[in-house]
Amino acid sequence: MQTNDSVLKKLGLPVLAIALLIVMVAWMAGAFNNKVKPGQSEQQSLVKLDELLRQAIEVERVKKEVFEPVPAGIEAKQNSLISSRILAKIEKVHVRAGQQVKQGQLLIELEKADLLSRESQAKAALSSVSARLLEAKNNLKRSEDLSQKGLIANAALEQTQANYDSLLAGKQSAEQALLEAQTALGYAQVHSPIDGLIIDRFAEPGNTAQPGMQLLTLYNPATLRVEAHVREQLAIGLSLGDTLQVRIPSMNKNLPSVIEEMVPAGNAASRSFLIKSRLEAEGLLPGMYAQLSVPVGTKQQILLPSDRIAYVGQLNVVWVLENEQVVRRFIRVGDQKENGMIEVVSGLRAGDLVLPVQS
Predict the structure, then answer these.
(1) Would you say 143 and 152 are in contact if contact means Cβ atoms under 8 Å apart?
(2) Residue 43: in which H helix or E strand, if any?
(3) Average pLDDT of the chain?
(4) What is the largest distance, in Å, between two alpha-carbon atoms of the chain?
(5) Is residue 31 over pLDDT 70?
(6) Exposed/middle/buried for 196, CB within 10 Å: 0-12, 13-18, 19+?
């Protein structure tokens, strides 16, 4: 019995190994899979291929206009530097930076006691010379009557006439002095020349304003435009009224603008021309950075929806249907276009079938 048990133990391990080997070979041969009827496998492959074809996008080269981004800035067409025209102490400042103002609105008041005194003196001087002129006029009339009757000498008449002429000139001078005093008095009140927004305030009550001294700056937000220096090769192809796209990077906006002014002289140093185009949009401020898109011509491009591209690190990958097989292909992309399209620089050619991103 011990001999038989020993023999069984010796034979058991090889037999078990052989049995497992037979089972594995049978499994790999598909013995345990459901049998596929003849032709069914080919039919499933055709169905899968048809599904892939429905999902695929055929690559085409399209003719697109090419634009060159030109650095630009937002500027106000209507802006004003408010300065004093007289020497006077600042009495009141009615506005601050960021405040909206209307045309003609009172902004600053200067001290006007001295100006009122000058006006009063000018009025008194005019009144005095007017009274003396009236007296001289009456004397001249009497002298003329007496001269016609031969009762006075011509020399007396000429003296009366000269006195009248002198006083008449004095009245005109007094009227001019009064006008100057009233004009200076008007300068004591500084009004806004335009509808606009106060940019900065440089004056405070108690300061002394001098002629030409900067007090306030303001601009009209409704007159913003884009100003760009465009190289001459591109500028010569532009005309007044052309519509160009403007990108505002800080706001992530693309806006249309219309060329309204082209400076007819170029910058000799940069070989460029200043182009000014009208822009209408809310939230823009003078001094903001912009990019003006200037057309440079056309070229053939391959555009692909961004959702067909997978980004693996710094690599761009697409899946194409090639010889009825799904093949992964690396591509190089360019700029992102409108409507979610991306330019493919290399890696695809016309006629390729691009599939959705494969997991």
Answers:
(1) yes
(2) helix 40-55
(3) 85
(4) 189
(5) no
(6) buried
Residue 106 has pLDDT above 70, yes or no: yes
In the chain, the percentage of residues whose pLDDT exceeds 70 is 88
Tokens for 146, please give them.
Answer: 């007496």
Instruction: Choose among 77, 74, 86: nearest CA to 195.
Output: 77
Residue with the two structure tokens 């190994």: 17
Residue that is written with structure tokens 């002289």 in the block: 265
Per-residue pLDDT, 314 = 85
Cβ(299)–Cβ(66) under 8 Å? yes
Does domain 57-64+300-355 bear CATH number 2.60.40.1120?
no
Q: Give this prediction's pTM.
A: 0.60
Residue 239 half-sphere exposure toward CB, CA atoms < 13 A: 1
Residues 68-77+221-297: name the CATH superfamily. Efflux pump adaptor protein, beta barrel domain (2.40.30.170)
Structure tokens given for 269 = 């140093």
Task: Render the burial of 105-141: b for 16+ CB within 10 Å, e for the rest.
Answer: eebbbbbbeebeebbeebeebbeebeebbeebeeebe
C-alpha distance from residue 208 to each of 88, 94, 181, 307 (Å): 6, 16, 19, 66
Q: What angle do CA 276, 278, 280 make, to 5 degrees?
A: 150
Q: How far apart are CA 20 and CA 223, in angstroms?
A: 88
Q: Please return the burial class of 185, using the count of CB atoms within 10 Å of its CB with bins 0-12, 13-18 and 19+.
A: middle
- Provide DSSP, 326-337: EEEEEEEEEEE-
What architecture is the 112-187 domain classified under in CATH? Orthogonal Bundle (1.10)
Distance CA 202, CA 216 (A): 6
Tell which residue, 333, 289, 274, has the closest CA to residue 308. Answer: 333
